[in-house]
């Protein structure tokens, strides 16, 4: 049953019964206070536990989406390898045979020909065929090293390369350094992309919202903001800050690539990261070391989410700035145009004031209440312009025009 607090304001200190009753009431009061404090502490503990469970649940959702996409990408890479690797081996074997055959023919034509008169033509003909075979082999991915039996520098459809290729399909980057050539591989690529691209966009959007929330929280808890934010605005400041963070992220990726790729410079790595994060994907620079392909895939997925968030932030700022410019291209711009046209031909101040008075309410009628300071400032500027124009007209110097006619009689 509920316990009520009872407080005794006045009592007779000489009455022992009253004193004893007071002590009992104080003891009961302390018990009630302790019970209430325990209830409040328990409520706070329950709220804290609930909040922590919600945060853990949200974090698991974000991580779960990324892990699911990684598993889908890995399974797709294994299937691509199973479909394309046999055809790749057969193609490279054919290129090796062609190079070896044309090389042997060229050497036989040099060693076994005894007729001197047609030796030059024969050598030129065999050499041309051998050069074509060498070019095809080099373009096909073979190293022109006879002692090592024309080896391939790296396995194109290895497990890690296939997973990396599947990630470029899902992210729509498409470097083009390796592509499916079999009918089965191309059919699977279509199905894999139809299912995986929307899934990838969902994951990128989810992590993009996470990054946007982080930027917002960082902006709210920033201890001091630079003074130049008063001139460019908070939104532009956040956009510039986000672009700077993207530059740091790209530079970090470039530094890692500089450690892994022996023949790359820092700018090559930075250029590759930028082309990748913006999904341009020229394919002129592609990592060839298979040891870090999985890490590179994870870097690309997180970087795409970050890049999409920053691009959207900058795009919204562009849209806001463009909307403000469009606001100035309405009746107010027409008024200023009329002011410029009539400035040199005798400005009618009354007509100008009437035009501005009619234009301003129309221009302001569609605006929200939060733009009222801007509107008030614009009205003050307009009134100041009208005042200066009127004073200039009132102080306009008088001009006496004297016309002299000269005639001869």
Describe the protein's architecture and organization.
The chain is mainly α. Helix content is 73%, strand content 0%. It contains eleven helices and no strands. The chain has helices at 16-111, 119-140, 159-170, 183-220, 229-232, 234-260, 266-277, 293-327, 331-342, 349-364, 372-394. Helix 1 (16-111) crosses helix 3 and helix 9 (331-342) runs antiparallel to helix 10. It is elongated and about 115 Å long. Residues 1-14 and 361-365 have low confidence and may be disordered.
Task: Set out the fold topology.
Layout: H1 16-111, H2 119-140, H3 159-170, H4 183-220, H5 229-232, H6 234-260, H7 266-277, H8 293-327, H9 331-342, H10 349-364, H11 372-394
Helix pairs in contact: 1-2, 1-3, 1-4, 3-8, 4-8, 6-7, 6-8, 9-10, 10-11
Largest sheet: none
Q: Number of DSSP strands?
A: 0
Strand residues, percent:
under 5%
Helix and strand sequence: HHHHHHHHHHH
Query: What sort of overall outline do the alpha carbons produce when their principal axes are compared?
Result: elongated
| Fraction of residues in helix | over 70%
Uncertain regions spanning at least 5 consecutive residues: 1-14, 361-365
Question: Ends: how far apart?
Answer: 132 Å
What do the pLDDT scores average to?
74
Oligomer: single chain
Which key terms come to mind for this protein?
mainly alpha
Can you summarize this structure?
This protein has 409 residues and is mainly alpha-helical.
């Amino acid at each position: 049953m509920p316990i009520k607090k009872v407080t005794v304001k006045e009592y007779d200190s000489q009455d022992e019964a009253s004193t004893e009753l007071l002590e009992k009431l104080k003891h009961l009061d302390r018990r009630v206070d302790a019970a209430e404090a325990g209830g409040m502490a328990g409520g706070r503990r329950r709220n804290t536990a609930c909040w922590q469970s919600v945060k853990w649940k949200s974090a698991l959702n974000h991580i779960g989406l990324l892990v699911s996409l990684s598993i889908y990408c890995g399974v797709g890479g294994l299937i691509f390898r199973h479909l394309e690797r046999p055809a790749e081996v057969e193609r490279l074997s054919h290129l090796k045979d062609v190079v070896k055959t044309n090389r042997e023919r060229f050497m036989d034509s040099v060693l076994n020909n005894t007729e001197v008169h047609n030796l030059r033509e024969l050598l030129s003909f065999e050499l041309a065929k051998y050069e074509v075979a060498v070019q095809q082999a080099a373009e096909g991915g073979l190293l022109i090293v006879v002692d090592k039996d024309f080896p391939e520098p790296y396995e194109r459809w290895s497990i890690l390369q296939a997973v990396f290729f599947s990630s470029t399909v899902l992210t729509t980057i498409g470097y083009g350094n390796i592509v499916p050539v079999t009918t089965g591989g191309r059919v699977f690529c279509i199905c894999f992309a139809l299912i995986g691209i929307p899934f990838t966009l969902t994951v990128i959007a989810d992590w993009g919202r996470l990054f946007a929330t982080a930027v917002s929280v960082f902006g709210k808890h920033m201890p001091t903001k630079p003074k130049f934010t008063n001139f460019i605005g908070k939104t532009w400041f956040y956009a510039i800050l986000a672009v700077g963070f993207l530059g740091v992220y790209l530079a970090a990726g470039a530094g890692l690539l500089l450690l892994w790729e022996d023949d790359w410079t820092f700018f090559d790595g930075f250029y590759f990261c930028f082309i990748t994060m913006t999904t341009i994907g020229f394919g002129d620079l592609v990592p060839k070391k298979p040891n870090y392909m999985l890490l590179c895939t994870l870097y690309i997925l997180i970087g795409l989410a970050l890049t999409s968030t920053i691009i959207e932030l900058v795009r919204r700022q562009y849209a806001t700035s463009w909307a403000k410019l469009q606001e100035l291209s309405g009746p107010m711009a027409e008024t200023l145009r009329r002011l410029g046209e009539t400035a040199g031909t005798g400005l009618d101040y009354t007509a100008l004031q009437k035009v501005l008075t009619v234009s301003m309410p129309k221009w302001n009628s569609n605006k929200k209440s939060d733009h009222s300071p801007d509107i008030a400032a614009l009205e003050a500027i307009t009134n100041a312009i009208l005042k200066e124009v009127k004073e200039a007209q009132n102080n306009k110097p008088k001009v006496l025009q004297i016309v002299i006619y000269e005639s001869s009689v």
